[in-house]
Amino acid sequence: MKIIARAPGKLMLAGEHAVVYDHCSIVAAVNAHAHMEIEPLSDNTCRIESSLGNYESNIKKLEDDKRFRFLISAINSFDLSYGLKLKVYTDFEQKLGLGSSAAVTAAAVAALYYLKHREELNADLLFDYAYRIIYDVQGSGSCADLAASVYGGVLAYRRKPRRIMPLIQRPSLFACYSGHKVSTTPILVQVNNRLKRKPIRTKRIFNQLDKSSQSFEIAWTESNWSICAFEMEQQQKLLTKLGVDSPELIQARKKLRSTPGVLATKLSGAGIGDCVIGIGEAGSNDSLPNCHQLGEDLTQPWKIEIADKGIILDVIN
């Protein structure tokens, strides 16, 4: 038996950082997937093949490896009595910052659950299961990227009290890689340290991001893309105040903003590096490549394709 799971990556549209502190956000699942292939083995060996490298250990006592910490935690949670062969890969360039860790975790949980129980987890239970694994490993974060991987589409998302609301309207969305890859955790720590040093100012920024995200959601449901563009610009100003902008992101926004059809731009995700995103009227500039067509120049603007489905599971007997 081989189980194949794939989960989409994500780009944040609104509410970065504030969502970590239980405010509103908007996140989009992107048509760029993490793939997981799992086969049971007759012995106790656990083998992982990945673009990050290979791994082998006894499944009864898996050795720690920072490259596969989410995957190892997921495997441990199922307490399997047999070995595994896992192949992990993405169909997008991981430098783009599309939330591959959450997508891999979601795909692993979906495949491992089916392997052990011979049935699929529904989306809500899958989200809960993967959420616990991510928190066990990472200790912080919003899991907005996980929501996008599990449910797909464009979502209004809040961690606590949990709210996951699909947004069905579709404008044109664009992205551009800054050329600078960053790790999320240090930036979360940076923002948390700012919160401790300047609690009143930082909470005010979070509240303003929350209000803007709510306005963004209302405008989205009304297909009012000019208001969405306005709120996107407001979000960028607030994120700059929060200290997560950078020269690389500024240059990427200038490049994307000069692209025909783009009404507004902002950073997407933790900031400092990775991608910026833009919004335009529906059907704007369909001539741009998607993320699979970028070639060697990852810093050219590209058209975002929304993945309307989350986890997809296939079983080969």
What are the SSEs and their pairings?
Blueprint: E1 2-14, E2 25-41, E3 45-50, E4 53-58, H1 69-78, E5 83-90, H2 100-117, H3 123-138, H4 144-151, E6 154-158, E7 163-167, E8 172-177, H5 184-197, H6 199-221, H7 225-242, H8 247-257, E9 264-267, E10 275-280, E11 302-303, E12 312-316
Parallel strand pairs: 3-5
Antiparallel strand pairs: 1-2, 1-12, 2-5, 2-6, 3-4, 6-7, 8-10, 8-11, 9-10
Helix pairs in contact: 1-2, 1-3, 2-3, 2-4, 3-4, 5-6, 6-7
What does this entry look like structurally?
With 317 residues, the chain is an alpha+beta fold. It folds into two domains: 2-167 and 309-316, 2-Layer Sandwich (Ribosomal Protein S5, domain 2), CATH 3.30.230; 172-303, Alpha-Beta Plaits (2-Layer Sandwich), CATH 3.30.70.890. It is built from eight helices and twelve strands. It has helices at 69-78, 100-117, 123-138, 144-151, 184-197, 199-221, 225-242, 247-257; strands at 2-14, 25-41, 45-50, 53-58, 83-90, 154-158, 163-167, 172-177, 264-267, 275-280, 302-303, 312-316. Strands 1, 2, 3, 4, 5, 6, 7 and 12 form an eight-stranded mixed sheet that branches. The chain is globular. The model has no long low-confidence stretch (mean pLDDT 94).
